[in-house]
Amino acid sequence: MNLNFLPPDIRRAIDCLNINFLTEIRIRRGQPVIIEYRGEYAYINSFGVCTSANDAIRVYDVDGLFASIIADGVYAYAEQLKNAYVTLDGGVRIGVAGEYVTERGAITAVRCVTSLNIRIPHDIKGCALDICSLIEERGVNSLVIFSPPGYGKTTMLRDLARYLGRKNNVLVFDERNEIAAADSDGDGYLLGERCDIVRGGNKLEAFSCAIRTMKPQIIITDELYGERDIEAVKYASDCGIAVYASTHITDKDILKSMPFEYFCRLTGIGKSVVIYDKNFDIVRNYSGNDGDRRVAFGR
What we know:
Helices cover 24% and strands 28% of the residues. By secondary structure, the protein is an alpha/beta fold. The chain has two domains: 8-119, 2-Layer Sandwich (Beta-Lactamase); 129-285, Rossmann fold (3-Layer(aba) Sandwich), CATH 3.40.50.300. The strands form two sheets. The chain has an eight-stranded mixed β-sheet with strand order 10-9-11-12-8-13-14-15, with helices on both faces. Helix 6 runs parallel beside helix 7 (227-238).
């Protein structure tokens, strides 16, 4: 994973950490840089994690930093910026805060950037074992993984793609280029010999085209939200295709209205899951708690 776009002092701090446990870097103009590390938020200095905000690294020109990050592909990122993020090669996703330029109620650009949320992807083989166990017992059925942001939904979908692709033709609709995380040469995470990757467009149009042309048995996609996304899932289901997806929605009544047979709740990074059926009765409970994240400030 290439994090060379980071300022040298932040790179030195990251070099002192185990990258496998780093999930997020938050940069706010003039404020201490904060990371999520081992499921906790903490400050960093040039030697890694530190406990004092006074000793933490700060970045004052966030707008200039972001401009340098996208300098080689500003036009390529234009569509993504309408949703206030960019995804770099390798699946590193950067959320952007600043002045949102809008036209007719829709964001058209972001300028005067003041904050960046850099999310670090991981490839953890076997993390979807609980869902795979359900599939072994009950067969391939549409399932949505749900949790607040940052609990590892995309990582689990990546592992599911590999598992399901052993016996099925799997289409991965990678709208934000995070599941396969392909670079400009098309290289990314290895998802297996029976996975086809589609990027760009919206879910409804992509599903419609890909079902006709690629004939998938299973579709995997990330971050469902809104009526058109749900319509895309229903279209695939009507075509006899199972969908494995994720969503930030956690309201049970909204989830129950979606066209899925099973619902998988993540309880925290590296923690077990709870799986429900269509009626939201528990069919698997591997979790003993809700997995709320702790905060490490001042320790």
